[in-house]
């Protein structure tokens, strides 16, 4: 099979498009013929050696796919050959085939194209888990989303609205804010033109935000950490700016709010049944039109480096997808 291969940590440009052995289905596993793979910010960190996981070489990056089951291992009973599915895995998604534990595979309802299904998995599922399990977002609460036009930020806007929140979108350009508004944001803040801390204070009449979905880091995190309501939840999702902030813990003490880490990959492994229930709810919202997948561009697998560079440079509105 063809795959994108990382042979050593380094620039994204060093990734190669190579022949790799076809996977086989071991006990408890299936093999999926991949139709689409989602491209995510952590994939770019991983191949540069900047992520918390550091696999042995060579490895195939990519964690979310949609496709068809082509082989079933022993003791797998809830899937069948020829079935459309989505799957998540730590590695292996940037390829024509992937072997994966059957526990990480779910049937894909008819009516969801493979390109959108692959893009739905990580971004929307991260936002869903963050807002539902980690923040316990309640109807009527104020939700601030930074990076609100990116894949997971846009998903948080949509899911926040589906859960009944008042959503404040924070972006760097008017074009990105317009996209966030199109997908449900109630209030828009351009942090390049407005002081984020002061604007949040004004909008919330000094009360602060109940929940912040923070995936940018750097100055955005700093401003949000000083803009929390009593009993608020500051969700640490990622650091798209490239700057991991230092958090003054006295703020949480004085303002009485929680700083909550969101690591969706670990969640899927520690609580697969809850993850499966979340995906069923997401599929329902998708089919009802409450959440939508915005695919910025679908590129051939061989152009994975181009797709990753676009993601890492924060030039994407929605998600990038690869198609073998």
Automatic annotation (TrEMBL):
Pfam families registered for this protein in UniProt: ADH_N (PF08240), ADH_zinc_N (PF00107)
InterPro entries per UniProt: ADH-like_C, ADH-like_N, ER, GroES-like_sf, NAD(P)-bd_dom_sf, Zn-ADH-like_protein
Gene Ontology MF terms: oxidoreductase activity
SUPFAM superfamilies: GroES-like, NAD(P)-binding Rossmann-fold domains
Domain Enoyl reductase (ER) residue range list: 10-322
Name of the protein: NADPH:quinone oxidoreductase
Organism, scientific name: Alteromonas halophila
